[in-house]
Automatic annotation (TrEMBL):
GO BP terms: cilium movement; CTP biosynthetic process; GTP biosynthetic process; negative regulation of oxidative stress-induced intrinsic apoptotic signaling pathway; spermatid differentiation; UTP biosynthetic process
Protein name: Nucleoside diphosphate kinase-like domain-containing protein
CDD domains tied to this protein: NDPk5
Sample GO molecular function, one term: nucleoside diphosphate kinase activity
Domain Nucleoside diphosphate kinase-like residues, every copy: 12-150
Record-stated family: Belongs to the NDK family.
UniProt-listed Pfam families: NDK
Gene Ontology cellular component terms for the protein in this record: cilium
Taxon lineage: Eukaryota, Metazoa, Chordata, Craniata, Vertebrata
Length: 190
């Protein structure tokens, strides 16, 4: 009688990475660094956010003095959004980024991405999620279709065989993680 051993459970964390408008032309270089650092890029997209979308993305920063400049900067051109995955992805990505202020990063973490590609306090070249909750929210914001969860599951061994089956089709069509749009009336609406 053959005894099958259960496959080990490996927790892989996801985080959002943004290549900001002023260094989009360095995407290939940055992608190479990301891959060499042990990350898997689950999904990538290039987009141009409106100032309103930027305001919604950085809602936690609302009311701070730099907020108008931040939304103007982030909406000034296209950016690249990526979902990165690996063990402890959030902390490893933050470590690779360095301090949020590029001027500080140049002094204290000269090999960090923000020290290399950033120019000042505001234009720090790249974004990374601060924690798990922020990561989940930001990934859903940048990838609202939510299909990356199903695709990531289906392409991980030993589930590769599901890619061509009815279950894969059903999961893609009936994805429980697909966001639903809700309309909340504004106070003045009837």
């Amino acid at each position: 009688m053959e005894v099958s051993m259960p496959l080990p459970q490996i927790y892989v964390e996801k985080t959002l990475a943004l290549i900001k408008p002023d260094i989009v032309d360095k995407e290939e270089e940055i992608r190479d660094i990301i891959l060499r650092s042990g990350f898997t890029i689950i999904q990538r997209r290039k987009l141009h956010l409106s100032p309103e979308h930027c305001s919604n993305f950085y809602v936690e920063q609302y009311g701070k003095l730099f907020f108008p400049n931040l939304t103007a900067y982030m909406s000034s051109g296209p950016l690249v959004a990526m979902i990165l995955a690996r063990h402890n992805a959030i902390s490893y990505w933050k470590e690779l980024l360095g301090p949020p202020n590029s001027l500080v990063a140049k002094e204290t973490h000269p090999d960090s991405l923000r020290a290399i590609y950033g120019t000042d306090e505001l234009r720090n070249a790249l974004h990374g999620s601060n924690d798990f909750a922020a990561s989940e929210r930001e990934i859903r914001f940048m990838f609202p279709e939510g299909e990356f969860l199903t695709r990531a599951f289906l392409t991980t061994p030993p589930n590769r065989s599901l890619l061509k089956g009815w279950l894969a089709d059903w999961l893609l069509k009936n994805n429980p993680n697909k966001p639903k749009l809700c309309h909340f009336p504004i106070a003045d609406e009837p």
